[in-house]
């Protein structure tokens, strides 16, 4: 297969339809290229529950061993479990998953030793170039004097122990929690991580099934948490948790069945991590998180740092600033003590600790962190992304009461509102997020911007 890698290699991972866009022979090339670019003599490889994942992971391992690298296969795992293995074993890693995408997709998330990200600017473009050359002309003969070895290793129990060592949970009150794993890897990790905690666990869709028979494993889409919300109410549960397909993101539902904003969770965890570090530290947040995040960080003695959207950017900022924590609007949560990598499970443990450490309901606990009216992300299909962005820049750039910045797309900030408009890298879409001090202002700004975008 000579692939169109422009559609396959994204900003910080590989993702496409199997076998239409890529297959096992191409995965083998990626394995060889990964070893060559990282200059690794040993790597760790894991995979999710998609039907194509085990074969792709084995093919990647063949490519890696052909280049002389020893491969540790950890089998079924969540993406943050792969990051744990990369950090604990100090090895470059590759995770086979397409996260929340439909069943026909698969992909690779790659990292260097210590879970350091591999993105377009940190090795992924070089890997793409090699795979393109080799898929067209054939891979050169290996220069390894002897091929690498393949061993298997269990990491789930050590992963769970590491996370539980980072949050004080011994004194929490009993809680009833509904967990929707969406037939993804949360069904694999949650039973082990939550074992021994004073939780009445109500499992929902814990069966590992990469065809996603119940709903897409994408809790960011409101329709995919409807079952969780209903079950929380039916059970009289204290909260609900929803994991995406590879279980690196976690979404929270309160006792009323209402979704809790990832920005509120970011603020809550930031306050706890700052307290854990003596009221000092830097917290990274992307530019779409709520105003409440930097406010809470400052109120708790920390220093907020605003950055672009995307895990490779967040992780780079975490490393540069020595940050203790980072959060995104998409429910990715990053921890210094987890090799700056993202783990929704650790964020979930913080929520359980915070809720279980006091007597009130979750809705009351998060009220202090949810201070503004937000639109959520609104997508608009446009014929020309650049032209529509330019139209918005023209419409707001001449106003004395508005400040513009171009850190990631276009952000406009007024006295009591802000919005960000960004182009999708993969679809003809513009993504709009609006926040304001009250619902009326947010609605007015949202409608005004959309009128220009969709004109």
Task: Give a structural overview.
This protein is an alpha/beta fold and 455 residues long. The chain has four domains: 5-156, 3-Layer(aba) Sandwich (Alpha-D-Glucose-1,6-Bisphosphate, Chain A, domain 3), CATH 3.40.120; 176-260, Alpha-D-Glucose-1,6-Bisphosphate, subunit A, domain 3 (Alpha-D-Glucose-1,6-Bisphosphate, Chain A, domain 3); 262-367, Alpha-D-Glucose-1,6-Bisphosphate, subunit A, domain 3 (Alpha-D-Glucose-1,6-Bisphosphate, Chain A, domain 3), CATH 3.40.120.10; 373-453, 2-Layer Sandwich (TATA-Binding Protein), CATH 3.30.310. It is built from 15 helices and 22 strands. It has helices at 5-8, 24-38, 53-66, 79-89, 120-137, 156-164, 186-194, 226-235, 262-276, 292-299, 311-321, 344-356, 362-367, 385-397, 439-453; strands at residues 14-17, 42-47, 70-76, 93-96, 105-112, 116-117, 150-152, 175-180, 199-204, 239-243, 250-253, 259-260, 282-286, 303-307, 325-327, 333-335, 373-374, 378-381, 403-405, 410-413, 417-423, 429-436. Strands 1, 2, 3, 4, 5, 6 and 7 form a seven-stranded mixed sheet that branches. Helix 2 (24-38) crosses helix 5, helix 6 packs across helix 7 and helix 9 crosses helix 12 (344-356). The longest helix is centred in the N-terminal third of the chain and has 18 residues, at 120-137. The two termini are 42 Å apart.
């Amino acid at each position: 297969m000579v692939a169109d890698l422009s559609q396959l290699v994204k900003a910080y991972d590989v993702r496409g339809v199997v076998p239409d866009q890529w297959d096992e022979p191409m995965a083998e090339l990626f394995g060889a290229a990964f070893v060559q670019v990282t200059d690794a003599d040993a790597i760790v490889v894991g995979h999710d529950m998609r039907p194509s994942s085990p074969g792709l992971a084995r093919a990647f391992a063949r490519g890696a061993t052909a280049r002389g690298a020893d491969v540790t296969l950890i089998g079924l795992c969540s993406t943050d479990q792969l990051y744990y293995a990369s950090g604990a074993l100090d090895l470059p890693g590759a995770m086979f998953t397409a996260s929340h995408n439909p069943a026909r997709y698969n992909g690779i998330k790659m990292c260097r030793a210590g879970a350091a990200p591999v993105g377009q600017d940190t090795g992924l473009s070089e890997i793409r170039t090699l795979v393109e050359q080799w898929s067209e002309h054939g891979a050169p003969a290996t220069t390894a004097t002897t091929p690498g070895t393949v061993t298997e290793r269990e990491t789930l129990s050590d992963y769970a122990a590491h996370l539980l060592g980072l949050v004080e949970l011994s004194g929490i009150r009993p809680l009833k929690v509904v967990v929707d794993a969406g037939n993804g890897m949360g069904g694999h990790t949650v039973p082990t991580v939550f074992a021994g905690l004073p939780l009445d666990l109500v499992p929902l869709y814990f069966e590992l099934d990469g065809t996603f028979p119940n709903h897409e494993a994408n809790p960011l889409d409101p329709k995919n948490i409807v079952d969780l919300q209903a079950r929380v109410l039916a059970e009289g549960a204290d909260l609900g948790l929803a994991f995406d397909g590879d279980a690196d993101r976690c979404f929270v539902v309160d006792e009323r069945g209402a979704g809790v904003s990832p920005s509120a969770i970011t603020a809550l965890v930031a306050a706890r991590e700052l307290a854990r570090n003596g009221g000092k530290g830097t917290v990274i947040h992307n530019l779409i998180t709520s105003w409440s995040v930097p406010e809470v960080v400052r109120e708790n003695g920390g220093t907020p740092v605003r950055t672009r959207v995307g895990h490779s950017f967040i992780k780079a900022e975490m490393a540069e600033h020595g940050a203790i924590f980072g959060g995104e609007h998409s429910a990715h949560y990053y921890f210094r003590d987890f090799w700056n990598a993202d783990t929704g499970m650790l964020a979930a443990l913080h929520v359980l600790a915070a809720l279980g450490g006091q007597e009130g309901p979750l809705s009351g606990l998060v009220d202090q962190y949810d201070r503004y009216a937000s639109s959520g992300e609104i997508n608009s299909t446009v014929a020309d992304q650049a032209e529509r962005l330019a139209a918005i820049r023209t419409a707001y750039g001449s106003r004395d009461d508005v400040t513009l910045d171009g850190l990631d797309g276009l952000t406009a900030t007024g006295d009591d509102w802000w919005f960000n408009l960004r182009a999708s890298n993969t679809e003809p879409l513009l993504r709009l997020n609006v926040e304001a001090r009250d619902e009326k202002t947010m609605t007015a700004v949202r409608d005004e911007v959309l009128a220009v975008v969709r004109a």
